[in-house]
Amino acid sequence: MTDLHHLPARKGLDALLPETARRYLEHTAEGRPIRDIAREAGCHASTILRQVRKLETQREDPLIDQLLRGYPEADGGATRITRLDAATDALRQLCEPRAILIYSADLPKPAIVKTVAEGDTLLLGAIDADLAAALVLRDWIAPVGGASVKRYRVTSEGRSALPGLVAARDARALRPGDDPFSDLAHAGPDRRSRNRAISNGPGSESPLTALARRRGPDGKPFLPPDFVLAGDRLYEDYVVAGFGDTDLLGWDGPDALKRHYDGARRLTDTRQGAAILRTLDAIIDLGPGLSEVVLRCCCLREGLEATEKRLGWSARSGKVVLRIALQRLHLFYAGTRAKGGLLIG
User: Fold this and answer.
1) Taking the model in full, what pTM does it have?
2) Domain chopping of the chain, boundaries
3) Which distant-in-sequence residues (6+ apart) come within 8 Å of 121 by Cβ?
C-alpha cells in the first residue's frame, strides 16, 4: 500500500488514521483505482469499495467531513509524536467520569469538558478538529447526539487503547529511533481474534510463554526472545531475593521501597542481596505502572486476563502494556551488563 507519510501535509496525522481512512484517501485524494489498492492490500476490490462507501456515509459527521474535505492541508508543522501525545492526553481526559468532547462551528477547537457539582461545566482541554476526527475514525470516541453542538464520548475501544498509549509515551525515551506508531495497531482490541489471554494462577506457567508463540501481522514473534529473557531474569532475581507476593505491588515512589533497599544493605556481598538490589533497581526504572504488570505476569505468574481485571483495563489491552514494559526491562538489563553488573542465567 502506498505510504501516505510521503505527502507534504498532515505528516503528524497520517499514521494516526486507521487503514480504512488511508485507503479512502488514496482513492479520493490521490486518484488511485480501487482495484490497485485492493491488489496491494491483498483483498477483493469489493472490500475496498465498501470501505470507501462507509467513509462517505461517515462524512455526515462534521468533524470527519472537515478532515476529508480539507485533505491535504498544511498541518502546522505538528510531528507524529506531537499528534500521538495529544491523542493520548485527550483520551485520558475523556476517560474521566462525566467527560465529553463538544464541537460546533462557533468553537475555535473541539473542547473536552466534564460536569461537576451542581451541574457546572469544567473545561479540561481542547484539541485540533482533525485530530478529533481521527479519534472518531479509529472508533476511540463516538457521537452521542447534539444538533448545533455535537457531543462525543470515549468508547470501550478508546479505553482499551489508553494504557498502551500511556505506556508507550513513558517508554519512548528509551526507544531512540523507533517509530512511535509501531504499536498503534495493537493499542486496542484485536478484532480479528476473540481469543482471550491465558488466565493462569500464581505459580503456573508464565504468560510470556504463550505470548512468545504468537506472531504479529509482520510474521515476527509478538515477544522477541530478548524480551522473554528479560522477564525470566526478573523472575529469577525476584525468587532469589525472597520477596513476598505483595511486597512490591502498589508502590508510588522510591520512598515506598526504602525498607527493601535497607534490607539489601544488610546482605552486602551475598547473592540474595545482589538480587534484591537488581530487582528494586529494575522496578524503579520501569515506574509504578509498568512494573505492576511485569511483577504480576512475570514474577507472580498471574494471567493477563486476571491482571487486566485487577487493574481495571479492558480485555486484550494488557499484552500491549506488557510488551512495552518488557522492552524497557530488556534495555535495563542491557545497561546493567554494559556496566559490568552481575546477572543470573
Assistant:
1) 0.52
2) 4-69, 80-155, 159-338
3) 113, 114, 115
